[in-house]
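Hey team,

Filing this mostly as a record. A colleague (T.K.) asked me to run one chain through the structure pipeline before their review meeting, and I want the input and output archived in the tracker in case anyone asks later how it was produced. No errors, nothing strange. Just documentation.

Input sequence:
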Amino acid sequence: MKNYSELLKIINDKIAVTSYGSNPKNLYDPINYMMELGGKRLRPVLTLMACDLFDTNIVQALDAALAIEVFHNFTLVHDDIMDNAPIRRGKETVYKKWSMPIAILSGDLMLIKAIDLLALTTATPLLPILQVFNKVAANVCEGQQIDMNFEERDDVSFQEYIEMIALKTAVLLGGALKIGALIGGAVKEDADNLYNFGKNIGIAFQIQDDILDSFGEGKQVGKRIGGDIASNKKTLLLIELMEVVHKDDKILLKSILNNANPDNKINEVLKLYEKYQIKQFAEQKKQEYLKTAFEHLKLVQTESERKKILEHTALELMNRMS
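Output structure:
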């Protein structure tokens, strides 16, 4: 089994020699720009890892792995538009560097290019892979819409939040693993267990991200601490606080959330998080999803030693975040 850094190099080498088109230039340049911004490349690496579990010929999964990375970056291009985000990985976002119409069109083309790359897969019947990809792609769009719907609601439940992050973020990790497993020749049950491993790891990652936004350090997180609080974002922490807060504190919380001073808002909400042990609740939920993930990995019918690289990768990424 190849480790993360070895697989990352393979992915980056593939990206470096891949052409998505050239004319018109202002349509294709944003795609190249986005793909060159870097990042952990977690999803394509997982695709190759899953293939490697069942067949060491990981080259057969390389086009599919790149397809998943192109799709992921397509979602980021459009997310930045919807979030009015000016910066992505320390650089201008596509719509800021070019224009919103170009970003929309280039993003659309990235989705098409992802499907083109996926269609190059020849090692296994293509239809099951396309079905997994299309279902995951639809789920990601559903999750994004649900997340935007939350902005207009004050009654979001814990379970609704978990469903949203599962769709918006976690299913793509699961889908990357499942596609890689299918290309490697895995039976359906093993591919499904890897999907559920990835999905639950993805949920745990997002809960950890929520925790770090309020309780991490600025340098560690790479953004302002308390940004989610300042923007009244419906995170697991805020949703749980709104659920358990006592009557008097509920009135106080409403007043705090309407506070126009972001520093005061962050400080006061953090006091309530501490009072109601919200961080401890979130940590417990994160551990529950991690436990479920590893239970699914344990069920995958391949040598235990070969599965350790996936377990190590998940835990190492979680530790880097913490």
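Quick notes for T.K.: DSSP finds 16 helices and two strands in the chain. The first helix runs from residue 4 to 16.
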